[in-house]
Fold:
Amino acid sequence: MCSIIGYKGNEHASSVLVEGLRKMEYRGYDSVGIATIKSGKLLIRKGVGKVAEVNKSLRLDELPGNLGIGHTRWATHGGIVDSNAHPHLACKSTIAVVHNGIIENYNELKNELCRSGHEFKSETDSEVIAHLLEEYFEITGDIRLSMIFTCKRLQGSFAFVAMFNSSTLCGARYDEPLIIGVGNDDYFLSSDILGFLNYTDRAIFLDNRDIVILNDNDISFFNFDGDRVSRRMTQVAWELGDADKGKYSHFTLKEIHEQRYTIVKSMQQDKKNLEKFCDILTGGKNIYITGSGTSYHSALLAKQIFSKSKIHVETIMSSEFQYSSDMLDENSVLLAISQSGETADVIQSVKSAKTMGAKVISIVNIPTSSLARLSDSYLEVKCGPEIGVAATKSFTSQIALLYYVADIIGRKSNGILSSKDILVKAVIQVLELDSQIEGIADQLKHSKDVYILGRSLHFPICLEGALKIKELSYIHAEGMAAGELKHGPLALIDTNSIVIVLHPDDSTYGDTLSNIHTIKSRGAKIVGISNKKDALYDYQITIPTINESLYPLIEVIPLQLLAYHLSICNNGNPDYPRNLAKSVTVK
Ligand code: F6R
Structure:
């Protein structure tokens, strides 16, 4: 949830760190801080706000030195105040630490450290790491041993980078990502390759329970038991760093518009990879699909897509997986869907599926992610970096890929392959509705409650549309299966309600029309997303006619645009909605 970065080399460290943090800000952005070393002295600046704001007021990038660490925070323990921002110093100000994750036993450790005389300056769980390192360094006088002893005491999940005033940079990871960027004369330690991709495309991915120590002329790797380990260098794709807003005012808008290319790109798969993935999938007696948030909505839609291709699958929300995973065994296949590939709930589900003997396959956007590396086989959606916190293009790429896989292995086709060109044209037509939707957003911006109704394949899109509206515009929104309205929620509908109906002229048309009449007679305003004109709608968003199975791919786009414009109308920041982070690496 937070981003961490360390730098050691010949460059001006603080400028490198600030630039890296800017690129990784999607991971968490409520406070930011930097520490560097100059002539054996630790210098630190930190404060509440986004990287650009804090840098403007505190001039983080002017701290001197060629060695430093930095952090952007997404608060879990302790309020959003300067003192809780990282880096955290130990008592003697000779050790500074930045941390991502949660230290579950921090209270117990803090009490113990306080009894030995340590004084804490923040309410965070992370600060215990700095004091533990200090404590063990006093006892052993050895950085490697201090790192090993400290890591062994920590429970929970963590990646941290520690800087000692002897100019040593260290890192360790357990269930949180930490990647080393290897430049010509410098090293980076970062949560994400975006943190250093401007400088180098050579990376070393640390394994769980790895410690790295960077001295003046040496880089060494150990595990938590103190054994030396060796780690391979890999080359990462430069295009992963292509994160620029271009002509758009926000990444979110840019990413929504990129769907004209990304949806079909997800179907360009390497033949061998695809075969392996499909073989594992079809080899399973029971198939389960898991994911969180938007990726879970992809899973829900996948269930319907696969069932149209005559393949039965069950879905399990990743955060609920541990309570309902008993039915998995060695005959099962778990398909995990995740844009980031780092979501803690998803990773945990995959790990428990593996312990039950199930095969794991995944759909990811980041091939170097923990999920991809844990999977027996994975496919990439290839939609490029998604920087906006709300998932947009990754969602449509996931579902296009799921249609593609279902059509390859299923007995009945959804028709995605034969409809590729029509689909691209339809996506472009829907994107052209941007300014009309902006106008509708302006009319709806004061709404308190929005309901989104649809049936069958449209139902997961209702859930996804409601999630987008909630997270971007902070307006309460609920997605519902249209037929469920009469079983309770109708009690909420009155003249103040806004009801968006996914209503293309397909097999769901007639039944949904009856629901619209019911709503209309209660005085609610109706927004119809349909390919068929109808005077019943107060606002109509007309989408093109396409193959009936594929409507989800185009009808979600007006909802994404509506959520984006509602955010702008309500003075939100769609790229960085409050309280959220792009990569949710805590449970
Ligand atoms: C919503 C959103 C989140 C993510 C969820 C899972 O717009 O972005 O709901 O979909 O946190 O993330 P991934 O797909 O990275 O596992």
About this structure: The pocket of fructose -6-phosphate is lined by residues 292-295, 338-340, 343, 346, 390-391, 467, 471, 584 (CB under 6 Å).
